[in-house]
Design brief:
The protein is an alpha/beta fold. The protein contains four helices and three strands, in the order H-E-H-E-H-E-H. The radius of gyration is 16 Å and the shape is globular.
C-alpha cells in the first residue's frame, strides 16, 4: 500500500506513468491468480508493467517462467486493462543478464 501510494503521489506531481518491473519466476509468482491480483492493484492506474523472465543464477533454484505462462500472465493483465510488455532477454548466454553479473562479481571477491 505504501509503495502504491508513493507511486500515486509521483504521478500526481510529475504526470508521468509508473513502470513496474515484474520478474517472472516459474512456480513462484507466475500464476494467472497472481496476475489477477496485480491487475486489481493496477487497474485504472497510470501504469506500465514489464514482465521479465528471471535469469538462471548459480546457487539459486529459481527458473524463468515458460513463454506460455508469461503469455497467460500478460493476457490476464491486459484483461484488467493494464499496459504490459514482455521484455526481451539479453545477455543470458554470456552471464551478463540481470542477477548474473552480481553473482559473477561475488565469485571473484
Amino acid at each position: 500500500a505504501d509503495v502504491l501510494a508513493a507511486c500515486h503521489r509521483y504521478f500526481q506531481t510529475t504526470g508521468r506513468r509508473i513502470s513496474y518491473e515484474y520478474i517472472m519466476i516459474a512456480g513462484v509468482n507466475d500464476s494467472v491468480a497472481q496476475a489477477q491480483l496485480l491487475g486489481k492493484l493496477l487497474k485504472g492506474q497510470p501504469a506500465h508493467v514489464n514482465l521479465i523472465a528471471c535469469n538462471p543464477v548459480k546457487n539459486r533454484d529459481f527458473r524463468p517462467s515458460p513463454p506460455a505462462q508469461m503469455a497467460a500472465f500478460q493476457a490476464e493483465l491486459e484483461a484488467w486493462h493494464v499496459t504490459v510488455t514482455v521484455r526481451r532477454r539479453l545477455g543470458k548466454g554470456i552471464d551478463a543478464a540481470c542477477g548474473q553479473l552480481r553473482q559473477k562479481s561475488l565469485e571473484t571477491r
